[in-house]
Amino acid sequence: MSTERSPLLLLPGLLCDQVAWAPTAALLSEFDCRVPAWGSLDTIEAMADHVLATTPERRFALAGHSMGGRVALEVLRRAPHRVSHLALLDTGYQALPDGEAADKERGGRAALLARSRAHGMRAMGQVWATGMVHPDRIGTPCFDAILDMIERSNPDQFAAQIHALLGRPDATALLSDVRCPTLVLCGRQDTWSPLSRHEVMAARISGAVLSVIEDSGHMSPMERPEAVAAAMRAWLARPAVDVPAPEVSS
Hints:
By secondary structure, the chain is an alpha/beta fold. The protein folds into two domains: about 5-95 and about 170-235, 3-Layer(aba) Sandwich (Rossmann fold); about 100-165. It is about 45% helix and about 15% strand. A six-stranded parallel beta sheet has the order 2-1-3-4-5-6, sandwiched between helices. It is globular, with a radius of gyration of 17 Å. Keywords: Hydrolase. GO terms for molecular function: hydrolase activity. It comes from Pandoraea faecigallinarum. This is Alpha/beta hydrolase. Pfam families: Abhydrolase_1.
């Protein structure tokens, strides 16, 4: 892929903004790095449509972190001919499970939302982000930057994004159809989106490269930007594959 300011879309996760990608993007300055904002969008599908509608170039490289990885897969489902490269970081691909697991996830997210409304976003973030990062990051400037980022959002945006995640589409069948160069990346200590899930994703995508970031939790682009940028640069150097645009029926 050409490195002459090629578009590189960096999709953020739940309650994340451009700061989630900033340390890694700064190390990839040869690319035209862009981080969309989700605003009040409340479905993964609407987020994917937003990405496509606000990117004028025909083709672009696409990296999604956490919830952004799910959005990236939905972009690929909608417009595979526009995605030259795909990177999935600390994320997942399955829909909300049935039964007790679904009840547990709904309850956990509802409790965090209730805390954000009662005590504020930063107080909620103190609880939530503690389990998101490597234990060594707690209390560091990196951790403070995560809390600052969470505080820039509000409970209504949090509720919209929770709605999106609880209604997330299943991308299991899509993985075997991916044809573009793909990077699957995960922090070794990511307990939110564990390495085992990424091993399955990488095995299901033909030619995917699995990169494990040592000494990192879920927020790998902020926690270990040098390692993440190195893995992404190698991924972006792989030649793109032409995927024909779908035929439009008359």
